[in-house]
Write a structure and sequence with these properties.
Elements lengths: L1 E5 L6 H14 L6 E5 L1 H10 L3 H9 L3 H4 L5 E6 L2 E6 L1 H9 L9 H10 L2 H10 L2 E8 L4 E6 L5 H11 L9 E3 L2 E5 L8 H6 L4 E9 L12 H30 L3 E7 L12 H21 L9
Parallel strand pairs: 1-2, 1-9, 2-5, 9-10
Antiparallel strand pairs: 3-4, 5-6, 5-8, 7-8
Helix pairs in contact: 1-2, 1-3, 1-11, 6-8
Length: 303
């Protein structure tokens, strides 16, 4: 059974889309299972449908207002560099309303329901073995995996949304009395979960470079520093997930192919730029093509 696993990574999900396009179109990979965290959870339902043109159009055209109903960020441009800074007015308004997050992401939930229809949900359930999204149960301090086979259409779309909620910058969701947030807070790339669910071959797309190739620039104010620190912590979780995934693959004789980004794509994955995301999609496609042409993909069973 073959599985495609995609990590979290915000706007860098465009790169994963390019890698997946090459694997599915050129390598003719037919996946039985799809697992994703955060931005990966947005991609996998459409990849399960093999509707690459649709997900390309959606992903490369997303804007801040498609995600945030209340945005804690202001997107700015200085020369060729795009960056975000704090929106003090919106953040203060959230404090005044006694909200626990700097922003709200209800617009993202509306867009998920708009772009992934009930009919598409039924097709995926009939044609694929499983589609799984990762969420963090903050009340119980545990990671949970939500399968399309165990959820109604509305429930599954809600779990996709919850998987993307990067606390404390996006909405904190409550389900059955428990509070949930971004799956990446507990598991950035669920390789081990794919193996536990019966995968015998896993293609895992990791939206980070395999090694840090340049010095990181930390935030210049408390808010942006917080973003930098969260990124650092998620990097550590991701490395741990990969190490556990490699061990599980070796112990279960599972073929594991890892696809990293060749460089650090961005210091802030909450920037959604059409120009950058189109570029990253092409980079992902070309990088996967190069790895297969040269035979440099990684089979962790033999490590």
């Amino acid at each position: 059974m073959r599985a495609l696993v995609i990590s979290g990574g915000g706007s860098k999900g465009a790169y994963a889309g390019g890698v997946a396009q090459y694997l599915m179109q050129e390598q003719q990979r037919d996946y039985d299972m799809f697992l994703g965290t955060s931005t990966g959870s947005l991609l996998i339902p459409h990849l399960a449908l093999n509707d690459l043109p649709k997900i390309y159009k959606i992903f490369t055209n997303v804007r801040q207002h498609d995600i945030f109903s209340v945005s804690p960020f202001v997107q700015r441009k200085k020369g060729d560099r795009e960056y975000v800074s704090i929106d003090f007015i919106n953040s203060m308004w959230q404090f005044m309303k006694r909200k626990r997050t700097f922003g709200e992401s209800k617009a993202l939930r509306r867009n998920i329901l708009k772009n992934f229809t009930r009919e598409e949900y039924e097709i995926v359930k009939q044609q694929k073995h499983d589609v799984v999204v990762t969420v963090s149960n903050l009340s119980m301090n545990r990671v949970e995996y939500k399968s399309i086979n165990d959820c109604s259409y509305e429930e599954f779309c809600n779990w996709i949304w919850i998987s993307c909620n990067y606390i404390p910058f996006m909405s904190l969701a409550t389900v059955d009395g428990y509070e949930y947030g971004d799956g990446g807070l507990g598991c950035v790339i669920p390789i081990r979960e794919a193996i536990l669910r019966g995968a015998t071959e896993v293609d895992a797309i990791v939206l980070e470079a395999e090694s840090l190739n340049k010095q990181k620039v930390l935030g210049k104010n408390p808010f942006s520093l917080m973003i930098s620190l969260f990124g650092h912590l998620l990097d550590q979780v991701e490395r741990n997930d990969i190490a556990i995934g490699k061990l599980a693959a070796k112990n279960n004789q599972v073929k594991l192919n890892l696809y990293y980004t060749p460089t650090t794509l961005t210091e802030n994955s909450l920037i959604f730029s059409k120009r950058l995301m189109e570029k990253w999609w092409s980079q992902g496609y070309n990088y996967a093509k190069e790895k297969h042409t040269l035979g440099h993909f990684i089979d962790e069973v033999n490590v």
